[in-house]
Amino acid sequence: MNPQSLPARQWRVPAVLPVAKLVGAVVLVALGLLFADGDRVQLALAGLAAAGLAGWALRDLVAPVRLTVDAEGITVREGFVGRRRLPWSAVEAIQLERRTRRGLTAETLEIDAGESLHLFGRYDLDAPLDEVAEALREAHPVAD
Prior knowledge:
Elements (H helix, E strand, L loop, with lengths): L8 E4 L3 H20 L4 H23 L2 E5 L3 E6 L3 E6 L5 E9 L2 E9 L4 E4 L1 H4 L3 H11 L5
Antiparallel strand pairs: 1-2, 2-3, 3-4, 5-6, 6-7
């Protein structure tokens, strides 16, 4: 298949994930209020943890797309809401790493761009990582 004819594809955070994070933040505040019993430090720690979780959820809501691929290259999410464009000439390798530890298997999609390494997990892309890796390799004008 001609990579130049492929339309742009993108992968994003699952819609349920920011909702779960926001619910978790509310639960943390509720538990802090319930169990603080006048302890301001405990309440402040619960509030800080909830704020961190809410900020993480906000990032997922504001910038849900983590990875985009088209004929010219790959665009990855960088920082809180920034993007970085990687032309195909900068992409050195696209690998799927599988590690098993204590009976659990963890998968990570690695995009090596020489000076930078971009890592994605299952919940970053809302798709099986082997399918994403295959789509990236198909779009790459020169196969690895």
